C-alpha cells in the first residue's frame, strides 16, 4: 500500500517501510498508477488530486482532540502517531506540537534553518552565507558566520528545551536528525507522519 | 553638532538630544548642508558619502577591544556606549553583543520580527499574517496567528535571557522598546549608537 504526503516543495512516498521523495509537481502525481492514500497541504495540486480515481484523501479521517483551529493535516498525522510527547517536524518550517494522553495541547511554528539563512541574506549582503551547523553553541561567536549560525540554531534549541520539560521529543523532517542530537530523551523518526496515516487506516479498517 | 547613522533602510539623525529618521537615499544625504559625523553600513551610499566635504566618517575612530572579525560599525558604536552589559539592537536584524569591563566578548545575530514575519509568508500562504505582539507567551498557541507570533517572539526572549545571566540588558532599535518590557534589569535607549559616537568624538577631542 502506497502512502503519500504532499507538501509545498516535495512529495514524500512511503511503501512497506521504504520512503522516497520527488518534487511536488502534478506530473509526479500522475506518474503514480497504483492506488494511494495521501495527505496534501499544497493548494496548487489540490484540484488535480480531487479528480484522480486512484488517489484517496485521508484528511477526512484525520481528526484529533484539540481546540487548535486550522492545524495542518501533516501535523495532525504526526500527532496521531504519538500519544505523549513533543512532536517536532523540522522542515522549511519547524512545527512543534504537544501531545498528552492522546490530546493535542497546542503548538507553534518557527522558520526552518534554510528559511532563516534566506532571511539573513535578505537583511544584508554581508550576511548572505551558508549557515555552519557545527559551531560551538557554548561560546560567544567571533565572526559573522558564527554569529548568524548561533543566532539561527540556538534559539530553536532553547525553545524546544523549554517545551520539552519531562516529555519525550519526537523529531521528523529534513533537519530533524540534526536537531535530535542536541537532546536527551529524544528520537528521530523520519516516518512519523506515515505512522500516523497508517494508524488511522488501521483504525478505520481500510487496511 | 549633527550625528548620522546610515543603515540599509533608514538614516537616523541626532542633534542636541533630538532624533529623527529618513529613508536611506542619496538625496536625503545631499539635503544635509551642515557638517555632520556619520557611520554607514549601506554599501550603495558609501562612495557618495566619501565625496562629500561636509561629511566626516567616524568609522576610523571607532575601535573596540575584541577578537570578533567584521563587527559592523553600528554595533561597535553601541558597544562603545556601554562598558558592562548585553547590548541588543532590535531592528531588521537583532544584533546582540556582550561587553564586560570595556571588552567585547562576542555577539550574535537573529532575524528581526519583520524579517521573521516575511519568512513565514514565504514558507506558506497560510502563514502570510501580521504577527500579534500581544500574545500570551505562557500558554501554548491554539491557531496559526498565535503559533507564528509565539514561534517568532519567544525564541528571541529565551536567547536574550540565556545571554543576560546577571548582566544588564541595553535595548535599542525599532523593536527595542517592545522587547525590553519582557526583562528585569533592562532599559531601552534609542540613542545608544549616538551615545557611543559622541563618546568617541569627546575622547578624540573632536567636540
Protein described:
The structure is a homodimer of 207-residue chains. In chain A, the strands form 2 sheets. In chain A, strands 3-2-1-4-5 form a 5-stranded mixed sheet, sandwiched between helices. A 5-stranded mixed sheet of chain A has the order 8-7-6-9-10, sandwiched between helices. In chain A, strand 6 and strand 7 form a beta hairpin. The relative contact order of chain A is 0.16. With 207 residues, chain A is of the alpha/beta class. Chain A contains 7 helices and 10 strands. Chain A is globular and about 55 Å long. Chain A has a domain of 107 residues: Nucleotidyltransferase, domain 5. Chains A and B meet through strand 7, strand 8, helix 4 and helix 5 of A and strand 7, strand 8, helix 4 and helix 5 of B.
Strand and helix layout:
Two copies of one chain form a homodimer.
Chain A: E1 2-6, E2 10-15, E3 18-23, H1 26-30, E4 36-40, H2 43-50, E5 55-57, H3 73-80, E6 85-90, E7 93-100, E8 103-111, H4 113-123, H5 144-164, E9 169-172, H6 176-180, E10 186-188, H7 192-203
Parallel strand pairs in A: 1-4, 4-5, 6-9, 9-10
Antiparallel strand pairs in A: 1-2, 2-3, 6-7, 7-8
Helix pairs in contact in A: 3-7, 4-5
